[in-house]
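Work Package 4 report. The design task specified in the project plan requires that, given a folded chain encoded as structure tokens, an amino acid be chosen for each position. We show below one input record used in the internal validation round.
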């Protein structure tokens, strides 16, 4: 059987509010869980009045707490908007609370307008840093030798997250990293 998933934005309907939208997101996730769906993805959109899932990691926790077995994740975290350490801490904590049920999907688009993107990450370098940010995020979940290039060694995330790149994402990721100009830094680690 083909595994099915749901992607939800937590839309705020006319006459509704964010609380109602989040309640409806949970009800949809619970139905998907009962019906045997594999994953429930939540999208990240910031500063949009009709979307209640802006704090994606918090909504993922809400949905995971209200369901039994379905995997819950981001579809996806727009990595240019966030420091990799913050994403690692959020999803590492979620994985600790809901072992084996949390997924983190990543994207490189801003997911919002330029002014909001700058407000989210004031040193925003755009999608050009995406491959390096992905590598840094992964390294927060791996043991790193003390001689590593990792600049935040003393701030290691304590939780572990199982990450996977399913084909063809894996191949795309490898191509991006292989052509990333700073790869030699990682090979020294």
């Amino acid at each position: 059987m083909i595994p099915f998933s749901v992607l939800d934005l937590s839309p705020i309907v006319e006459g509704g509010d964010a609380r109602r939208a989040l309640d409806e997101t949970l009800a949809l996730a619970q139905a998907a869980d009962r019906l045997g769906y594999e994953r429930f993805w939540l999208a990240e959109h910031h500063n949009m009045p009709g979307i209640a899932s802006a704090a994606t990691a918090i909504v993922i926790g809400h949905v995971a707490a209200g369901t039994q077995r379905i995997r819950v994740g981001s579809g996806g975290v727009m990595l240019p908007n966030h420091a990799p350490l913050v994403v690692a801490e959020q999803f590492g904590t979620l994985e600790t609370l809901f072992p084996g049920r949390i997924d983190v999907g990543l994207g490189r688009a801003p997911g919002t307008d330029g002014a909001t993107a700058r407000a989210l990450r004031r040193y925003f370098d755009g999608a050009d840093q995406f491959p390096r940010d992905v590598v840094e995020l992964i390294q927060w979940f791996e043991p790193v030798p003390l001689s590593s290039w990792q600049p935040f060694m003393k701030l290691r995330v304590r939780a572990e997250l199982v990450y996977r790149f399913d084909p063809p994402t894996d191949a795309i990721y490898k191509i991006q990293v292989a052509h990333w100009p700073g790869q030699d830094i990682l090979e020294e680690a």
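The radius of gyration is 17 Å. Validation will be extended to a larger panel in the next phase.
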